[in-house]
Amino acid sequence: MQRPWSLRERLDEREIAKLITAYRDGATTASLATTHGVSPSSIKRLLHTAGARRAPSTRGSEKATSTTTYP
Q1: Per residue of the chain (71 residues), what is the pLDDT tens digit?
Q2: Are 48 and 58 in contact (CB under 8 A)?
Q3: In this structure, what DSSP letter does residue 64 have?
Q4: DSSP string, 33-59
Q5: Residue 47 contacts by C-beta under 8 Å, 6 or more apart in sequence?
Q6: How many Cα atoms sit within 13 Å of 48 on the Cβ side?
């Protein structure tokens, strides 16, 4: 049996929503592609079409910086 060609035929709306949430929570496009059996470029295209962006990074924030001082 041949797999459907269209990405929308391979993934239903619920799977796409989970994929977008996982991406926003930090999953990489490569890991999502492997998990869902599609190419990384398909994942990127789907995320771009959906307008999905990662959550803002905490790098450089007070939470991410060390409070330890050295003499």
Answers
A1: 666 567 777 888 999 999 999 999 999 999 999 998 889 999 999 999 989 888 776 555 555 544 555 55
A2: no
A3: T
A4: HHHHTS-HHHHHHHHHHHT--PPPP-T
A5: 19, 20, 23, 29
A6: 6
What pTM did the predictor assign?
0.67
Q: Residue 24: what pLDDT?
A: 92
* Structure token digits, residue 34: 């492997």
31: amino acid identity, one letter: S
Amino acid (1-letter code) at residue 38 = V
Instruction: Residue 23: name the closest of 2, 44, 41 by CA.
Output: 44
What token pair was written down for 27? 């999953």
